[in-house]
Amino acid sequence: MAQSQSTPNASAPASGARRQLATKPFSRADKLFYRASSVAAYIAVSIVGLILVFLLMRAWPALQRQGINFVLGSTWDASPDKVIFQIGPMLWGSLLISLVGLFFAVPMALAVAYFIEFMANKVVAKVATVLIDLLAALPSVVIGLWGMVVFSPIAAHWAQLLNQSFGWLPFFANDTENFIGSPFIAGWIVAVMIVPIIASVSREIFSQIDRDLINGSLALGAGKASTFFRVILPTSGGGVVGGILLGLGRALGETVAIFFVLNLVFDINWGDIVAPKGGSVASMILAKFGEATAEELNALMASGLVLFIVTLLVNWLAAYVVAKAQPWRK
Amino acid sequence: MSTIDLTPVARPANAEPWKRKDRSMVVAAGLAATVPALITALVTAALGWDPSVTVMAIFLPLQLVAAGIVGVRAYGKRGIAEASLIVVTLLLTALVAALLLSVLWSVISAGAQTLSWTFLSQNNVYISPTTSLEYGGVGHSIIGTVLIVGLTTIVTVPFGIAIAVYLTETRGKARGAIRILIQAMSGLPSVVAGLFVYSALIASGITQYAGWAGSLALLPLMLPTVARIAEEALRLVPAEYRNGALALGAPAYRAFLQVTLPAAKTGIITAVLLGIARIIGETAPLLLTTFAANNTSFNLFSGSMSSLPTYLYQYISNGNDTSTQRAWGAALVVLILVGILFTVARVFGRAKKATSKSLTKANNARKAN
After folding, report:
1. Spatial distance between the Cα atoms of A304 and A317, rounded to a whole number of angstroms
2. pLDDT > 70: what percent of chain B?
3. Where do runs of H (alpha helix) occur along chain A?
4. Do B331 and A145 touch (CB under 8 A)?
5. Best label site of A282, B6, B53, B65, fewest CB within 10 Å?
6. Residue pair A134/B342 in contact by the 8 Å Cβ criterion
7. Do B78 and A223 touch (CB under 8 A)?
């Protein structure tokens, strides 16, 4: 202070440059504090990197042998004379199940979000929110047990009804008598698991809509339906899409619950959703892991790598879209 | 020259909507809400048709028509869309509630038959899939779960809070990117986390199946939950607190430890509890890293270990009745643990709201003075 008063010229040359008001940690303890927190953040980044590196390291032999056919082909043979590992049906199965799951989950989740945010009174809304959170916290192995013992027979019955009345539609075809273990049932199980994710994101976004927009629309004479479809949905579209993508990411990675309700078959099931054959990369890893040979293990690592990359991309996109939809949260 | 026609026109049917709640409307709404359900129930009972068919083919169209009629009476033409929206929303919400309650009810009713002190305290040594429920239980799995999840929690919580500190307290350049990455990490498939630890530690010979490998596999699954909720909690602490502490001359780390962190305490505890709830039922990573065991083991650092989810998995796969009974029992134990974590988290969440309310009250009082 005293120094700057005694030498006013010292600041003169810098008159053109903007003064910097940023403070920097100067004590050793503070530097340590900030350093530790940024190190933690970078370790989190490096965990993702490490997962990629380790999986790639183990997966390389399998990927090298099969090339692009690893994800396109549909043969899985561990017998020593001809070793072929390809996960086409599983990858397509994961996608098919996720799409079926989204088909059921999106309307249910949007309805729940709309119900909680705009229809229920305070008490009901609170109870419903707690229940949805509880549904999100149910472990997938418990859902798997319920799905196998309780839900599969019910859903198989629905599938049979669909097959009887709409069997002429290509995706309700089933040439066997068995309806247990179909992508239809797995899709329902996945839907049960992703409804709370989509619902809570959508509810969050709905609650952040400027109330004046909604009230304005109602004051102009729009009904609740047109307010929902022309004001609420367009305003919250980005966030809802992000929530759906988060659900998709979770659906693609779902392992144990699907393992118990799906009949894994290495034969591409393009769209017969009620037929008892399907695939899922994550469940396949779990199913094959126990008795895997060394080479098979490499192939499982490669499957894990493919799954990881796909879900990481979907989740990254989802997180980006959700963040974009809430520009007020820096 | 035209004259202005001053004869009154008929009022539109939907004028003054606030006055239209007359008796007949209430009766009509009540009828519309009950009659379709009654007809459906009668048809189902009388003709013995399949309930899934009658609900879709009779109840849904009838309910839409009935609600549409009431809607038209109340609001004119646009009432149809409105009534359909309400009917569809309520039906889908009821479907979700039915699914959730079905899960809860199955677990509680089937699990309650299995639950006993023996089941909670004994381990799985000498137990075959057909052994009667009087012997053997999940004692060893409860111990395993507590140890494995406990180790994960001890490591993950400071780690997650440090990330939250980076996201809220510093002005690091990578904050946006790291926030998005943490979000994306929360969707990491659990089996991939297991494969990662398997390939890094077990396949490379650093360790055999062991409890600590399982803890490590759970870490990337718990971390995003803790970091995200802790970040929310820290963000809720008013900037005045930090600035006040800094202005009084506290170094940043003390301002954080003594002011910000205590102010966000309840939120942080919620973060920890929900993080534990997230991983307590994870099965796939533990199957790949700790495997399963029948005996009670307190040693996290060598030898395979049992945990509730792997026990559950083992017995579901077996497939005979006693095994399924054991699986339901273990599921109930997991559900109870999740329920306890949830209730405690709710209680803390409520405490947080109470303090913020009392804070605003204190603020208002101060302003009034």
Report:
1. 20
2. 91
3. 2-6, 28-66, 69-72, 88-114, 122-137, 140-146, 152-166, 183-208, 211-219, 224-227, 233-253, 256-261, 281-289, 294-325
4. yes
5. B6
6. yes
7. yes
Within chain B, residue ranges assigned H as helices are: 23-47, 51-54, 60-75, 79-114, 117-121, 139-168, 175-185, 190-197, 211-236, 239-247, 252-254, 261-263, 265-279, 284-289, 308-318, 321-368
Burial class (CB in 10 A: 0-12, 13-18, 19+), A320: middle
The conformation of residue B17, written as its DSSP 8-state character, comes to G
**Chain B residues with CB inside 8 Å of A328's CB?**
none
Position with higher pLDDT, B369 vs A105: A105
Which CATH superfamily does the domain covering B139-350 fall into? MetI-like (1.10.3720.10)
Closest to A111 (Cβ–Cβ): which among B53, B92, B280? B92
Which residue in the set B96, B199, B220 is minimally distant from A301, CB to CB? B199
Spatial contact of B189 and B122, defined as CB atoms under 8 Å apart: no
B357 — pLDDT class (breaks 50, 70, 90): low
For residues A289 and A234, the answer to whether their CB atoms sit within 8 Å is no
Interface TM-score (ipTM) > 0.90:
no
Query: What are the residue boundaries of the structural domains of chain B, listed by start?
Result: 24-112, 139-350
Show residues of chain A in contact with B90, CB under 8 Å. Answer: 111, 115, 119
Distance CA B100, CA B337 (A): 18
Tokens representing B326 are 């054991």
On whether the CB atoms of residues A80 and A294 are closer than 8 A, the answer is no
- What residue in A sits closest to B79 (Cα-Cα)? A223
Which residue from A minimizes the CA distance to B331? A142
- From chain B, the residues in CB contact with A125 under 8 A are none
DSSP state letter for B9: P
Those residues with Cβ within 8 angstroms of residue B361's Cβ, 6 or more apart along the chain or in another chain: none
Rounded Cα gap, residues B272 and B157, in angstroms: 7
Angle at B242 between CA B238 and CA B245, to 5 degrees: 135
